[in-house]
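Model the whole thing, not chain by chain.
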Amino acid sequence: MSNELDQSRRDLLKQIGAAVSLAGMGQALLPAQEVQHVHQALAQDKAVQKGKYQPKALTAHEYATLQRLSDLIIPADEHSKGALEAGAADFIDFLCAASDEMKEIYTGGLAWIDDESRRRYEGADFVTSKPEQQTELLDVIAWRKNESPALNPGIQFFAWARRMVADAYYTSPIGIKDIGFMGNGAMAEFKVPQEAVEYALKRSPFA
Amino acid sequence: MLQISRSPRVFDVVVVGSGAGGGTAVKILTEKGYNVALLEAGPMLNPVTDFQEHVMPYQVDHRGAGPHAESYFGRSQKAFGYFSAPNGNWTLPGEPYTVAPGSQFTWFRSRILGGRTNHYGRISLRFSDYDFRPEDGLSDNWPVTYDEISPWYDKAEGFIGVTGTKEGMRTAPDGNFLPPIAPRVHETLIQKSCAKLNIPCIPSRMAMLTKPLNGRAACHYCGQCGRGCRTASAFTSSQAMIFPAMKTGKLTIITGAMARELVTDSSGKVTAVSYVDKASRSEKQVRCKAVVVAASACESARLLLNSKSPRFPNGIANSSGVIGKNLTDSVGYGVSGYVPAMANLPRHNSDGIGGMHVYVPWWLYGDKQKDFPRGYHIEIGGGFGMPGLGAFAGQCARHEGYGKALKDKIREEYGAMVSFAGRGEMLPNKESYCDIDPSKVDAWGIPVLRFHFAWGDSEYKQVRHMEQTFASIIETMGGTVIGTQPQPEKAISMGGFIIHEAGTVKMGSDPKTSALNQYNQAHDVKNLFVCDAAPFVNQPDKNVTLSIVAFSWRASEYLAEEMRKGNV
């Protein structure tokens, strides 16, 4: 997956977000147009990238929303790339194609997030809202303490998405490298590095 | 009426079931030169294609969720995950069972050559002297003492290969051990914590080869024993016992064969085993001079109870009426903890053998202060496991949120988590048994089992003690218990969940109160032997597999000798 193209898509989404709020136009119409614009941009992305994952179950918009969510849940940092680059949305879409029950969770959950975003942010659905609006919304639905009849569908969906993005990330080559799993080999003898034992003992009550 | 096809050949012995007990019988009897037919209800095992050793999750498109994401909805076809060795499950298509109103029980069945030994934990503990002669009088004496069975434990350990060290503890008798394996970082901390609390924490006793043994290669320390081991460095009856027996030319394996009934002649001797060939759904019979039933405790009881005739109206070998009674499972309870001393622990390969390198044997035998009889051992978990689906579901649920904070937390806690699982002795009780459900049959028309099960006060109190002990060990090492239970007894495992069923075809010296004698031989039917955990009078806090091998070995040598003498 190309970072440059993903970056350009993020920039595009940001621009769209800015355009929506600057335009201050009717809430129903503009986002729909902009969504269409995003769809086209995504389609162009795919056209130029051979071998790029093609969503099997989610629409291009749902897939883009899920990609954005995955990027927010496990972002790239100074250690490693994040869930976007690790293809977390691809894994989830793949399972949505394999299970109607799973697909329902994601189509329903992503639609709820878009609805909530439009309600809060002048008609902007999630991917077209500003990054600070996206995190503002996640700051609400990422915590059980905010449970309420109105928010529960979003909170429950986010728990699913967070868990599955983590699953996808930490079972990918990028995530396994990030976490530092060094096993799955064949050893003639089992040994524990002394520095690891000392690291733990020094920090323990047995120091 | 369908014609029943009878084997023209009369085998010396038919063995029903290919797990630890059946595999041992097959090994001994073929070595002694007897012709054996082995009935297995599942398919043949092919370790090359059936074992998913060394596969990384991303090498499978669904990464272990299952082709239809089953693991996310609690519907995995494999109870221990997609990558685990083929084994069985608590529910099997076409093979129902029922649970009486007011009871809770779940019944694991394995349907594959080798049975549960293909995946089991391989914890290999001898029962203690007091397990065979309970000094508290709360359960019956066995017809065998520790001193009598000890030489057979030596043989069993010498053959399957068990790690360990001599400790001289009455609660954990020493054996014929392979070298132990070094403790991992968390295990060193736990040993120090236990030492402060005066709790023993000793090298584990596991059936993995720390040295080559009997033609099997030494372990290569990938930690994936539960997936099945292509080098057979972790014990399975399929690879270590049955495959070698096939080379003797003395063994005939009949797979897909669901035993229905033991057929007897007018003298009451078993002359054949009647079974359903699952592939053709036809009834067949295999003739024999003797039979070893080792279908797993409850399945063996079911087969005997379903073998009714005018001579045996309550089921074969059941004049005592004990078959199905005395059902036990281990008491199970678990807790995990986070240990800050291991936060961001320097990364290294901690795979080792699949499972714990140290464990806590029962340490309070005879202690007057505890408020429950019998005891438990503690199994220990932790280390840098291969991340699989759900590996960090706990972190996601506990820390919530998202973004870099969550990513950092997961990195910090990887390798810093520990878990403790208690496996305790359940006292046999009158409410826990299985019988034949009068109104239900399986897909082949065989009447199914109905379970009745109740934990007693002893087990609930034991679980409270486990909770307090685990918390002390975690806190003494500076850790935090995760998910503390205000009422641990509510978190006791469901009956059957620990998959240690035992006791349903009890052995004893009195034919009025037991079905089998000290050689696992039916009091009522001299050519019928039961060689799984069904004969076990009680269920010590020491996993039953090693004892199944020892008792089956002893019974099989006895049977071979009795056949040689012409007594069977």
